[in-house]
Write a structure and sequence with these properties.
The protein is an alpha+beta fold and 1062 residues long. Strands 9, 10, 11, 12 and 13 form a 5-stranded antiparallel β-sheet that branches. Strands 44, 45, 46, 48 and 49 form a 5-stranded antiparallel β-sheet that branches. Strands 2-41-40-39 form a 4-stranded antiparallel β-sheet, with no helix packed on it. The protein is elongated and about 195 Å long.
Length: 1062
């Protein structure tokens, strides 16, 4: 059966991505910069979080990494017991540009050495939670519905040396950072302690009371400070986790140093130095490059593993600080180093530096660093090596690599020694070093200053990662102090690495060292633009990525731009780098499976119309099917718009009046112009997209229009006089007063200066349904000198500088390439009045759903909002409630995750359901009717009984009357036989009635007695009193007899009625 499609008014940007998803980003923390979810926001939740910064380092601690020598069960057990956290270390929270800092008010920052620990989730909870308390309306997507569960806590605010001594004989004298950390074991073991420490016993563990008051005699401050010692505030440092410890390496630090005498007033030449008073310190904070190594197992307590050096490494000295009268004459004396680096023994050199003779034809010694020179913006990486022994035991080893970075060198000579300021000139290094003992000792695996044309170029701001048995290096910038020129790079280098552990120090076995000749350049010009300050993350194979190796490269800067793009690469030299939001797949159905994302910079060529798959008459859409897209504008229209500089969504929104009118077909007389059909519709879509993707603070602004209520919308405009002139003799339309597309009430033609009469569109297009299908591209934003890591199967990026060096980012983002998949868990039965739906999703944070109901290829609703707990009630379909009533309906549902990703595929197996809705029986009405009918029947029954009873009574009365008449006739006959006649009138009738009663009850005896009484009364007319008494007795007797007669009649009637009803 051919596939049917339903046209949905969708305009969106098609980012062709891999089948897994749309590669959007979800914001975990920081001020909300998207409209989908609520991140961890310290100001709102009254919690702490690190300040916006750059040049910081992050590592993942307590993370269980899959080991190839372990079984799947063992790796799974390690993963279940792990509680990975992100550890942020130091950085700089001031802007690098002083002028920019003054304008933005961020001129109070400084270098920091605080340590912050962040968790993506707490306990067994997911990284996101859906809170139904923030559900507002089914037409309103409230970002507070989806809330980040990430938390940050400050492990330590950082500790620095006091500016002066706080006790002892040197009270108030300047205290340097070197004196503050003088009791660290690595310093005491490697240098002459008398330079920094009067007595080594000062470092013995002091009594407890000394921690409460170090002024007590016998308490020594340096021994007390030993527990507080940690690395100095810095940026541009490196950090790794080696041997289950956090290791911090080098960087640009801020430390207290004592001012030299020649820098004080009067200290020049032969002038006498002017001494400062005791209370005024001759100390200041300086920024210095460091190569010290610190480690910690909790981020709070730190140990100095290697104090590093102040002097350069050997090949740097021989390259930059060699003095000779004739450098090309091998017989001439060659002196190396500055006057301050001269020495007689190694204990006179700071840290691990060694005192050596480097010059030719001289016995002069200088301090030489046996490890990499102090530097910043170098790349660090960690390799886990292991070897399985014959007995089954495993020997493992973590190897740290340091590649490149910027150092300071002296480019001037004073007499026969190099000289110049300590910060000197910046030089990009091309050397590489490794350590297999946690940073205690270092081996140089690549010499500096390679002279091969194809050699690895010195660089800083680059990144390096270890991928199994390879060291990968990406991009960076190089700087030559002579040419004073910066070159940005986009090359990729690969170095094969040994995989078996070495002895400590790696000095015994050459097989554990990488071969210098194996440095291979995979590409000199990758698909991404040249940059430095970017971040690179390696994702190991797993079920989440179909067991593929992947590398992510994000952000960075060059001389003109700060980048926000994200690139991925599969590590195969034949593979190309792919823009993360513009990936293409070979499977066309996978291309269609991706939802659309758009931003202001999206090209107009990516705007598409989409069609939703329509369920067939059999109610099935068994295959998971995506939208089908069609171009919103054709190539010719794109060329016309590009010719006037309109190439992106933002260009169309910001186009001026004359550009819009030209694209509509109006131009200066004599010019030929091609009109773009539906330009005003396209512009209205672009404006709505920009509004939708702009971050809003009030969720009510996110309310959408009803999809089925389409009217002729008008916009509120200014008065005619301020907009445009109308007709002749009026003010012409001025540039900027009218956009060329908006309707003007009661105006159909305007006179535009230089163009003449221009038609005014009468309707404003309703694009609400279009905007509902267009999704905003969520990315961390342009930045450089940020940090990124791979934690809990997620790529996380945080911090950095953005927006033209004017913003310090204070946020955390995670990449989400998985499209969520919604499933209908509860649905009404077809041909029934059931009305309840419930949904679920495969992602814990994607329990917010959008649903749409269609009938006969017509939208009944737009995409509405609900949650997993609320579900959907479609009882409103009942025509008695104003709904469409009985019929076939189709429901589509898609879940929304914190990154804004939505379902891309639809199927009746999961998120589509077609059913026949039958309105419910109106039980209330039916019940009312039944009750009314019963009441009517009862009323009719009782009325029937009443009428029947009445008829019976009338019948009885008729029989009584007949009986009375018969009795009267009999009495008359009786009186006639005895010779008496009844008198006419009431008394006669009464008398006759009385006689009948007596006749009925007493028979003939009563009649004879009555006759005698009557005769006696007639004979006693003379006896008045006796006559009156007789009358009274007769009246009483008559009343009694009447009552007895009435009761007799009632008994007779009741008897008759009883016999009738039986």
């Amino acid at each position: 059966m051919p596939m049917n499609w339903h046209l949905v008014a969708i305009v969106s940007l098609t980012w062709l991505v891999c089948a897994n998803g749309a590669n959007n980003w979800a914001q975990l923390a920081g001020e909300r910069a998207q409209n989908t979810a609520t991140p961890y926001t310290p100001e709102q939740w009254q919690n702490n979080m690190w300040s916006g910064r750059w040049g910081h380092a992050i590592v993942v601690f307590n993370q269980s990494i899959t080991r190839s020598y372990l079984t799947e069960e063992e790796n799974s057990e390690r993963a279940q017991g792990a509680n990975p956290v992100v550890v942020l270390l130091g950085g700089d929270d001031s802007l690098p540009n002083v002028n920019a800092a003054m304008k933005s008010g961020l001129n109070t920052g400084k270098l920091r050495n605080d340590v912050w620990i962040g968790q993506l989730a707490s306990g067994s909870q997911a990284s996101w939670q859906v809170d139904d308390r923030y559900f507002v309306d089914d037409k309103l997507f409230n970002p507070q519905l989806i809330r980040s569960q990430m938390t940050w806590r400050e492990a330590t605010p950082g500790r620095i040396a006091p500016a002066t001594w706080l006790s002892g004989p040197r009270l108030s004298e300047p205290l340097s950072n070197d004196e503050w950390i003088a009791c660290q074991d690595s310093i005491m073991d490697k240098m002459d302690y008398t330079l920094l420490l009067l007595d080594p016993t000062f470092c013995d563990e002091p009594p407890q009371f000394c921690y409460e008051d170090m002024n007590i005699p016998g308490c020594h401050a340096q021994g007390i400070w030993k527990k507080d010692n940690m690395w100095s505030p810095r940026r541009g440092h490196g950090a790794v986790v080696a041997n289950d410890k956090i290791v911090v390496i080098g960087g640009r630090a801020r430390e207290y140093t004592r001012l030299k005498n020649n820098m004080l007033v009067g200290g020049l030449g032969s002038q006498k130095r002017i001494e400062t008073v005791r209370e005024h310190s001759t100390i200041r904070e300086e920024q210095v490059l460091k190569n010290d190594i610190w480690d910690s197992d909790d981020g709070v307590n730190w140990k100095l593993v290697n104090p590093g050096c102040r002097d350069p490494q050997e090949d740097v000295l021989l390259q930059t600080e060699v003095w000779s009268r004739n450098i090309s004459d091998s017989q001439m004396t060659k002196l190396v180093g500055s006057a301050g680096s001269k020495c007689y023994k190694s204990s006179e050199c700071y840290g691990v530096a060694e005192c050596k003779v480097l010059g030719d034809n001289t016995r002069e010694k200088v301090c030489v660093c046996p490890m990499f020179s102090p530097r910043e913006n170098h790349a660090v990486a960690i390799q886990h090596r292991f070897a399985v022994q014959d007995d089954g035991s495993v020997i493992s080893q973590d190897v740290i690599y340091v590649v490149g970075g910027f150092i300071n060198v002296k480019q001037a000579f004073c007499a026969n020694s190099s000289c110049g300021p300590s910060d000197g000139y910046k030089l990009a290094m091309d050397d590489a070093w490794m350590s297999s003992d946690g940073g205690v000792t270092w081996i140089q695996i690549k010499k500096a200053f390679g002279n091969n044309n194809n050699a690895f170029i010195g660089r800083g701001g680059h990144k390096a990662v270890v991928v199994e048995d390879r060291l990968m290096i990406f991009g960076g910038e190089t700087f030559n102090p002579v040419a004073r020129h910066t070159t940005y790079l986009n090359d990729v280098w690969q170095v094969p690495l040994p995989t078996e552990p070495c002895c400590e120090g790696c000095a015994a076995y050459e097989s554990c060292l990488p071969n210098y000749a194996d440095w291979n350049m995979l590409t000199s010009n990758a698909e991404w633009r040249e940059r430095s300050g970017h971040t690179v993350v390696y994702e190991p194979p797993s079920s989440n990525n179909a067991f593929r190796h992947r590398v992510y490269l994000m952000g960075g800067k060059n001389a003109t731009d700060i980048f926000s793009d994200v690139w991925t690469w599969g590590l195969d030299p034949d593979d190309k780098w792919n823009n993360d939001v513009q990936l293409e797949t070979s499977n066309s159905s996978e291309k269609q499976a991706n939802v659309a994302f758009v931003s202001v910079t999206s090209p107009l060529s990516k705007l598409k119309r989409f069609y939703l798959p329509l369920v067939g008459t059999d109610g099935q859409l068994s295959n998971f099917t995506s939208h089908v897209s069609r171009s919103f504008v054709d190539l010719n229209d794109l060329d016309v718009m590009a010719a006037v500089g309109v190439k992106t969504v933002g260009d169309l929104v910001s186009a001026d009046l004359y550009t819009i009118l030209k694209l509509r077909g109006f131009d200066y007389p004599g010019r030929t112009v091609t009109a773009v059909p539906n330009l005003c519709l396209l512009r209205e879509v672009a404006i709505s997209l920009v509004k939708k993707c702009s971050v809003i603070t009030e969720p009510t602004n996110l309310q959408v229009d009803d999809g089925w209520k389409i009217g002729n919308l008008q916009t509120e405009s200014e008065s005619k006089s301020t907009l445009c002139g109308v007709g002749e003799g009026t003010k012409p339309c001025e540039r900027g007063d009218w956009d060329g597309c908006s309707p003007i009430p009661d105006v159909s033609i305007v006179d535009v200066f230089g163009l003449g009469d221009v038609d005014v569109p009468q309707l404003l297009h309703n694009v609400s349904s279009i905007i509902q299908e267009t999704f905003c591209l969520q990315i961390p934003g342009s930045r450089y000198m940020g940090a990124a890591e791979f934690i809990d199967s997620k790529v996380v990026v945080m911090g950095g500088i953005g927006l033209g060096d004017m913003i310090l980012h204070r946020d955390s983002w995670t990449r989400d390439e998985q499209n969520p998949k919604a499933v209908i868990t509860t649905k009404p039965r077809s041909h029934s009045p059931q009305f309840q739906f419930f949904f679920d999703s495969n992602e814990a944070g994607a329990h917010v759903f959008e649903y749409k109901i269609m009938r006969d290829e017509t939208d009944i609703t737009p995409w509405l909002i609900t949650t997993k707990q609320r579900g959907v009630d479609v009882a409103w379909l009942d025509n008695k409630k104003g709904g469409p009533g009985r019929g076939w309906y189709t429901l589509y549902v898609r879940s929304v995750d914190p990154a804004g990703n939505r379902d891309a595929l639809f199927s009746t197996q999961a998120n589509v359901y077609r059913w026949y809705y039958v309105p419910p029986i109106p039980y209330g009405v039916v019940s009312g009717c039944i009750v009314t009918a019963l009441l009517l029947i009862v009323a009719i029954y009782f009325e029937h009984r009443r009428r029947k009873r009445r008829a019976i009574i009338r019948k009885f009365e008729l029989r009584r009357q007949r009986r009375k008449f018969k009795l009267k006739s009999e009495n008359n006959a009786l009186f006639a036989s005895t010779g008496h006649r009844g008198k006419a009138g009431p008394s006669s009738n009464s008398h006759q009635s009385s006689r009948r009663r007596y006749s009925n009850h007493d028979g003939s005896h009563s009649r004879s007695r009555h006759s005698r009484s009557h005769r006696s009364k007639s004979r006693s007319t003379g006896h008045h009193a006796r006559t009156q008494s007789h009358v009274r007795r007769r009246k009483r007797r008559s009343a009694r007899e009447e009552e007895e007669d009435r009761l007799a009649r009632r008994r007779e009637r009741d008897k008759y009625l009883g016999e009738y009803y039986r």
